[in-house]
């Protein structure tokens, strides 16, 4: 599914909050018309304001229905900021969270002196000068297997901070005056992408050494990677399964 | 100025409504710090939900201030969905509405089976099949001097419906699955662009004759051009002065 995260308090269901899981479960349970509550399992959470181009979720539906019928039915009931882009009937062994072996995130940085009104919810804005070549030089340091303890939000409960990033790229979209990051890895810690992007922008601005990531892997200290780029620039772009 | 029209009840100031003119006048009057109220004059109104890439407005400011100082000051006080993109000190003879001799509007049509969540406020969605060649064949009929009585919203007070369109184009943005219309003319009637776009889409869908515009100019009957494309796809792209 694709969703515009602007008006959602994140993916995960929460009481008295508008969440993606919440609107999905409401639609699905309306379709099932049974007393037994159907829970939706997402591939992972996304925070408030974070977008998805291809989030994946699964659920057990108690009636016979074609994938096409489910696609139509759900989209007819879902609000316009959440769209089911594809539906498939999967074997019972499939689990959207436990069987994924990778995710790809995109981060859009908009440039310019002031925030473009049309991009305020869809990019992170960075108004300071950037030397893109410095960022390009730093990107290979992001790839590989590292302890990302310096890049995890303090609220995280996860103990193991070792993750592998298979691919980390940056490109300039000159027509739109944007810089686009992509990160493909086996899994990401809470706020990891947003903290990495903020650090990469500081490298581009010259406030950090080009190879500061190598130092940050060593020190394992969240306070050293100070900033977190805004949620508005982050997109869950792909979730990988066998 | 550029503004995202989504959360504005249009350009023109109205009591108890959030309007572009309203937020502008609030910012300017805060800067002037005088009792005398400063009114902003726009080049024309835009409706609720209609966007602007380059709206123009003027006002008389009672203090000495550089254009650069005004640009900074206003942007620091304006909400993020309205951005002053340029500021100039103009002669007293300039009037943003009375001295304009043309405007350019753009209309973005998004395609696809369902509305893309990221485009719901920024395009008009058309899910039916379209033959772009039929639309291209119709575009020259839109250009020229015509009586646009069939294309004016019924609420309009304006009596003279003759306008000149210097240029009317359509192009496909295949990467984004959109169709982009542009109309450059000496002036536009209330809802004219949105009614013309809806009519052109019906031509593209085969529900109207390719040259139906010629008939519609003759009949001068609003009920014949039935639909009005949504405000969300419309952008005021340029306002022309000498």
TrEMBL record, chains A, B:
Entry-linked InterPro entries: PsdUridine_synth_cat_dom_sf, PsdUridine_synth_TruA, PsdUridine_synth_TruA_a/b_dom, PsdUridine_synth_TruA_C, TruA/RsuA/RluB/E/F_N
GO molecular function annotation: RNA binding; tRNA pseudouridine(38-40) synthase activity
Presence of keyword Isomerase: yes
Residues at the active site: 47 (nucleophile)
PANTHER family found in the cross-reference section: PSEUDOURIDYLATE SYNTHASE, TRNA PSEUDOURIDINE SYNTHASE-LIKE 1
Assembly: Homodimer.
Function: Formation of pseudouridine at positions 38, 39 and 40 in the anticodon stem and loop of transfer RNAs.
Protein name: tRNA pseudouridine synthase A
